[in-house]
Amino acid sequence: MQYPGADIPAPTTPEANDWLTAGIAVFHGSTAAADFPPLDDPQAQRYGLGGFGAAWAECPRDADGWCAQPLDVALMLALVGRGELLARLCADERRPALVH
What we know:
The protein has helices at residues 14-27, 42-57, 71-78, 83-90. The radius of gyration is 14 Å and the shape is globular.
C-alpha cells in the first residue's frame, strides 16, 4: 500500500520493518548505533524516519518529553551528535519542482 501524500512505500521486506522498528526505538530514546540508518541508504533513512514519526504521532495527549515537542524538534533532539544524518533526513532531494 502506498501512503497518500508520501513517497514511502509500505514495508514489504523484513529490513524495511527493521528500520521502522529502529526509528520507533530512537524516538523512545535508543542511542544504539544499529538503530540509526546508514548515511548511504536513503531508503533505510525514510523507513527509520517513518518509524520515528509514527511513534511521535502515537504520543498521548498532554504527554511530556519529546512528545510535547513538534516533530522536527523531537527529531533534532534525538539526533544530537548525528548532524550529518539529520541533514540527510531533512534534505528532500526527491521533492518535485514547484509549478507556478
